[in-house]
């Protein structure tokens, strides 16, 4: 996403939360679903363009700094509540 390319990914919970509307989701256990998703992106220039643009917007909301800060806050919160 951050590279400005359209994303085709598995429709599993963590990925759909991260990708939101910026990816085309496929069933990871179905070869047909994966192939169909890839073909849709390859054959549909409007879809490709939309996914690439949405991916850039979506990926701007993520950073290693933000991830580190949230991880630190979670660990600090857990430490300050022993036995919780």
Summarize the structure.
The chain is mainly α and 84 residues long. 62% of the residues lie in helices and 10% in strands.
Record field, number of beta strands: 2
Q: Write down the domain tally.
A: 1
Spatial gap, N to C terminus: 38 Å
SSE series: EHEHHH
Which regions contain 5 or more consecutive residues with pLDDT less than 50? none
Computed CA radius of gyration, to the nearest angstrom: 17 Å
Question: Looking at the structure, what is the overall shape?
Answer: elongated
Strand order of the largest sheet: 1-2
**What is the helix content?**
55-70%
User: Could you report the average pLDDT, rounded to the nearest whole number?
Assistant: 92
User: What structural class results from the helix and strand content?
Assistant: mainly alpha
Largest sheet: 2 strands, parallel
Question: How many alpha or pi helices?
Answer: 4
Estimated share of beta-strand residues: 5-15%
Architecture overview:
- There is one protein chain.
- The protein is mostly helical.
- The protein has one domain.
- A two-stranded parallel sheet has the order 1-2.
- Strand 1, helix 1 and strand 2 form a beta-alpha-beta unit.
- The protein is elongated and about 55 Å long.
- The termini are far apart.
- The model has no long low-confidence stretch (mean pLDDT 92).
Secondary structure: elements and pairs:
Elements: E1 7-10, H1 13-19, E2 23-26, H2 31-43, H3 45-59, H4 64-80
Parallel strand pairs: 1-2
């Amino acid at each position: 996403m951050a590279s400005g390319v359209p994303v085709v990914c598995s429709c599993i919970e963590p990925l759909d939360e991260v990708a939101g509307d910026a990816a085309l989701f496929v069933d990871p256990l179905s070869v047909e679903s994966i192939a169909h998703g890839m073909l849709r992106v390859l054959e549909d220039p409007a879809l490709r363009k939309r996914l690439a643009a949405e991916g850039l917007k979506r990926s701007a909301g993520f950073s290693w700094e933000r991830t580190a800060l949230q991880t630190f806050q979670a660990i600090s919160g857990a430490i300050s509540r022993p036995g919780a």
